[in-house]
Structures are given as C-alpha cells and as structure tokens.
Amino acid sequence: MKRLVDNMLGLMVIFVAIGTVALLVMPLLIATAMSFDSREFLGQFPPPGLSLQWYKGFFSDAYYLKGLQVSLVLAIAATALSTLIGVAAAFTLDRYDFRGKELLSAFFLTPLVVPHVIIGFSLLLFFATIGMFDGMLQLIGGHLIITVPYVIRTTLASLVGIRKSYTEAALSLGATERRAFWRVTVPLSKTGIAAGAVFAFAYSLDDVSVSLFLTGPKLYTLPVAMTNMMRSQFDLRIAAAAVCLMAVTIVLIWVLDRIAGLDKVIGQGIYRK
Amino acid sequence: MDPKTIAQSAGPDRYLAVKPAPDHREKELDTKSGERPSSFPGSHMKLTRGAALVICLVVAVYGTLLLCPLLGIFVNSFREFIPGRIGAEANSPFTVANYADLLHASYASYFWDTFRIGFIASFLGVFLAFPIAHFVARRRSDWLRKLIFGFLITLMFLSGLVRVYAIELSFGPVGFARDIAPLLGVRVGSRFYIEFMIVLGLLHYAVPMSALVLIGTIQNVNPRLIEAAQALGAARWKSHLAVTLPLSARGLLSAFLISFTLSISAFVIPMVLGRGRVMFVSNLIYNRFYETANFPSGSAVAVVMLIISLLVVYAVSQVTNSRWGGALR
Q1: Least Cα separation, residue B12 to chain A (angstroms)
Q2: pLDDT tens figures, B287-313
Q3: What would the 3-class secondary structure string for chain A be?
Q4: Residue A13 contacts B where some CB pair is shorter than 8 Å
Q5: How far from chain centre, in Å, is Cα B6?
Q6: A251 at B interface, C-beta within 8 A
Q7: CB contacts, 8 Å: B40 with chain A
Q8: Which of residues 68-107 of A touch B (CB under 8 A)?
Q9: Using one digit for the tens of pLDDT, what is the confidence trace for B89-114?
Q10: DSSP B324
Q11: Do A177 and B41 touch (CB under 8 A)?
C-alpha cells in the first residue's frame, strides 16, 4: 500500500514537472511554427502550408530595419562602454583597500534591483531638466546604467576566484607589481569579463522598459518597434522577428557556455554578489 | 523515530550551518587580507591617485545616470502638477497631493492588482519549479541534466518580447485556446482570462529563476537524511515532506521573494497581455507620462514603487545572508 501511494505520487510529481516545462515551451514552439505560415492573414494554429513570406516581410520593412539598425549600434556601443567602465571599477574594487569599499560595491550593483521602468522614467525627466535632447546619447546612457552592474558582478566574481598565491608567486619570482597584474590577473579574469559583456549585450538588445521612455517616432529600437506593432497591428512578421531573437539568444547561450561554462554562470545567480 | 525529529536533530545546525562555515571564513580572511605576509602587497594596496580617479569616474557615471535622476523624481513628486511640460515648473509650489492621490481607491487597485497577481505567479512559480529543481539537483552530470540546465538558462535569457508574443499568439484570441477556453467555462476576453495570461507570462520568468535558486538549495540537503528517514519506515512522500522541504525552507523563501521582485516590476508582460484592462504599477507610471504627461504624479507612484521594491530586495538579502545562508550557495 505504501509503495502504491509512493509510486502514484511520484508519477504525479513527474507529470507536474513535464507539464510545467511543456507549458513554458509550447508557446515558443507555436510561435516558431506560425512564423512559417503560408497564409496571408493571421489564422488559427496549425499553419496549412509553409513559406518564408513573414521573414521576407520583416526584413523588407523599413520600420523594422531602422529599429534593428539602431538596436545593434546601441547594443554594441553600450556593451563596449559598460565593459570598459565595469572592468575598471571591478579591478579597482578588488585591488585596492579604502574606506567605504563595501558600500561602494553594493552601490554599484543597485541598478539591478531598481525596476527598469523607474530608471527609464527618471532618466527622461532628468535629461529634460538638464536640456540634453540627443536621442542616441540618452539611449546609450540608459542602457549603460542597466548593463554596467552585470559586468561589474561577473568580473568581480572571476577576480575573487583567482588564488592570491598566483600573484604572489609571480612577485616572488621577480615580476613587478604591474607585470604581475597584466600577465596573471588580467588573463585569469578574462572569462568573467567576457561573460559580463555577453550579459550586457543581451540585456541591451532586449530592453523595452528603459528605451520606451527615451525613444520617439524618429529614433526607436527594435524591441520598441515590436512592442508598438504588437499593440497596433498584430501580424506574423513579429513571429519571424521573435524567432530571429530566439536564435540570437541560443547563440549567446552557446557562447556563454564556451567561454565561461554554464555551471559557473549560474553559480552567481542574480542576487548573489 | 519520527522522520521530522531526525531532520531536526541532524539537520540545520549540523549540516547546513557548520559545514559551509569554514569555506566562508576562508573567504573573509582572504578579502580582508588578514593573514597575508606584509612583504607581498599583491592584491590589496592603499589607494593610488590613478585608482582614486577611476573610482571617481565610475561614481560620476552612477551619479549622473542613477542618483541624480532618482533624486529628481523624488523632488518632482512633491511638486504641483502644471499641464503641458516635461517635469514640474522649477519654482512651482510643493505639495503632498501627489501622494495623497495614491490613497484613492482607483490608485490602490493598481497596487492591489500588481501584488495580488505577482504573489500568485511567484507562489505558483516556486511550487512548479521545485520538482524540476529536485530532479536536476539529484542527478549526476549527464546530458539530461545539462539539457534542462541549458533550457532554464535559455528561458532566463530569452527576450521578454518573444515570450509575450508567443503567449499572445498561443493563448490569445487567435490561438488554439479559443477552442479550449469555452470548454472550461471561461470567456477568452474576460478579466479572469487576461489575468491568467499575465500569470502565465510571469511564470515564464518565475519558474526558471526559482528552479535555479532551488537547485543550489537542494544540492546542499544531505541525501542521507532522506535515506535515514526511509530506512526508519517513512514513506517516500513523507520523507520529502518532513526532511527535504523544511531543509530547503530558506531556499524556497528566497526563490519566492526573487520571483516576487521580478513579477511586481514586470512591465512588458502586463502592458501587452493586459490589454489596458489589467495594469501593473509600472504601466501606471508609463501612462502618467504617455497619456497625461503628469510627471509629478508619475514620480510619486515611482517613489512608492521604488521603496516597496527595495524593501523586498532587503528581505531577500536578509534571507540569503542569514545564518543558514550557506544552504543557498
């Protein structure tokens, strides 16, 4: 009897787990299938035939293409800047001792816990107050502040993992302070820096909550364009765009696994320092 | 003996608190340069001028892009609303009316919706994530473990828009749900159904997030305790209920709180899936700007929301840094 109840419950738990995964995956599969729909209109699932018309439609629409271009330029600029600033901050925090260091490290990570809508809203107000109206600069600023903490966190984590004895060995073998830094510390923290850059790129490319406040009819990012289209004209070109974005995500995950190993990335989690 | 007593006597204190502690202490010594010979300045030096410059620069970036703007909305939230411009008049009178308005029933309902739906999604998320996390945590390294791991991380990374669109496509008016929903006695356009779709959207974040937190927790629960409980006669389900669950309590709580912070600050999910009929506080802030351009009121909402989110985050840090924090590592 005990066995029976156990097995029944065990089966039920497995069903719940499989059901949960299915519930999460199914919409993504349906969207992928629908993006190849051959009908001219948005019809019921499943599509009766396959075609690439929605992809063609997406990649020949000037509205989306402009958004895509802005998004890519923005993501590259934001990633470059936040990697530069984040790495400099992390190295300094790790290497030097000074008062208020703990507080400063915590402060540098705060953008992670401030809702992005509030960051977007406050930046809009701030830029208007100081009279800074260059749209691209506003966007870069907004994306910079939400991506920098990821770089700082991953870089700091990789620096903490470096055994101090390596640096000490280099020093005792006659290397100068500077040489030990460039030849030992920097190469060993490369994976953390690269992981941070991938995070920054992914989050910049995906952001809606901050960008929505800082974009207008003339300058907009791809996610903002997609959001607007979702609310006004719900067609399957967005499905095509979504499939492309999913492909980008999978490539990024693969890169992350190559450079850092997924286990390590997870070890840090979102709220761990 | 009752399995519960076993768990308690051998449990938290001995296994969770004591075991990870040495590791912890080592790290502390390391970073505070406690026992390092002074002949090796190696990693912790006094601040040089160049380093101080770097710190100042980064602080300046944060000051410009984070502190000043947040201070700005704080000041703005006390200004009187004058239509027709971004931000309040520089010398417009101070008032607390923007906050007083929030006590009004119609505003309170936005907060109520946000927390209610966020709570349901986070609770469900932890509940549904536990079996998945347990399965991964108790499995030796193999392709299935790696596959589920990769799947969870891909879900975490996946563009929010992609999820929202996929859910709208599958469960919206054109999706197959149009045929299924009536069978369950639910109308596709009803408020209940819209809330259901939002919960589904939030679960897309909450489940992978909770699962990843819980994997770490469950890995730290000594499997021998469950074996012991079963050897002493407890049924499998009872041993899990009396051993695994209590020992992962902190992890469950922290997974719930993390999901809750993500849920209550969600923006795109309620904006698209809520169709303007269900709105979260974040959508309210956007509407203050987009529809009425009432910045002082939007600022007041933002300040309240910021305080609440920071309180929840503080709770998370209290849970993860406490004495049993090692269990979450």
Answers
A1: 21
A2: 888 887 788 888 899 999 999 988 988
A3: CHHHHHHHHHHHHHHHHHHHHHHHHHHHHHHHHHHCECCCCCCCCCCCCECCHHHHHHHCCHHHHHHHHHHHHHHHHHHHHHHHHHHHHHHHHHHEECCCHHHHHHHHHHHHCCCHHHHHHHHHHHHHHHCCCCHHHHHHHHHHHHHHHHHHHHHHHHHHCCCHHHHHHHHHCCCCHHHHHHHHHHHHCHHHHHHHHHHHHHHHHHCCCCHHHHCCCCCCCHHHHHHHHHHHCCCCHHHHHHHHHHHHHHHHHHHHHHHCCHHHHHHHCCCCC
A4: yes
A5: 33
A6: no
A7: 167-168, 171-172
A8: 85, 88-89, 92, 94-98, 104, 107
A9: 566 777 788 888 778 878 888 999 99
A10: G
A11: yes
The dihedral of CA A210, A212, A218, A220: what is its sign?
positive
- The token pair at A200 is 């920054």
Give residue-wise pLDDT tens across range B155-168.
888 888 888 888 88
What is the model's pTM? 0.81
Is-contact B174 A42, C-beta < 8 A? Answer: yes
Q: Which residues of B touch A42 (CB under 8 A)?
A: 174
d(CA A101, CA A98): 6
pLDDT over 80 (residue B19) = no
Closest CA relative to residue B205, chosen from B142, B118, B84, B278? B118
B140 Cβ neighbours under 8 A, 6+ residues apart: none
Residue from B44, B49, B66 to probe the interface with A (highest A Cβ count within 10 Å):
B66
Say if the Cβ atoms of B286 and A121 lie within 8 Å: yes
Number of Cβ within a 10 Å radius of residue A3: 9
- pLDDT band at residue A88 using 50, 70 and 90 as cut-offs: very high
Strands A96-97 and B45-46: parallel
Helix axis angle for A237-259 and B160-171, nearest 10°, is 140
Instruction: Take residue B73 and report the two structure tokens written for it.
Output: 């909305």
Look at B299 and A117 and tell me if their CB atoms are within 8 Å. Answer: no
The structure tokens listed for A120 are 């977007």
| Inter-chain touch B149–A262, beta carbons under 8 Å | yes
Element (H, E) at B245: helix B245-247
Contacts of A31 in chain B (CB under 8 A): 162, 165-166, 169-170
Give the ipTM: 0.83
Instruction: Answer yes or no: do B162 and A212 touch at CB < 8 A.
Output: no
A130-134, B22-26, B52-56, range with the lowest pLDDT: B22-26
Asked if residue B152 lies in contact with residue B212, where contact means CB atoms within 8 angstroms, the answer is: yes
N- to C-terminal Cα separation, chain A: 48
Q: Do A24 and B204 touch (CB under 8 A)?
A: yes
Distances (CA, A) of B181 to A34, B49, B175, B196: 20, 67, 10, 11
B168–A227 C-beta distance less than 8 A = no
Count Cβ–Cβ pairs < 8 Å, chain A vs chain B. Answer: 273
- Residue in chain A closest to B272 (alpha carbons) equals A231
Residues of chain B in contact with residue A163, where contact means CB-CB under 8 angstroms, are none
Backbone angles phi, psi at A271, to 5 degrees: -100, 5
- Do the chains contact at A223 and B309, CB–CB below 8 Å? no
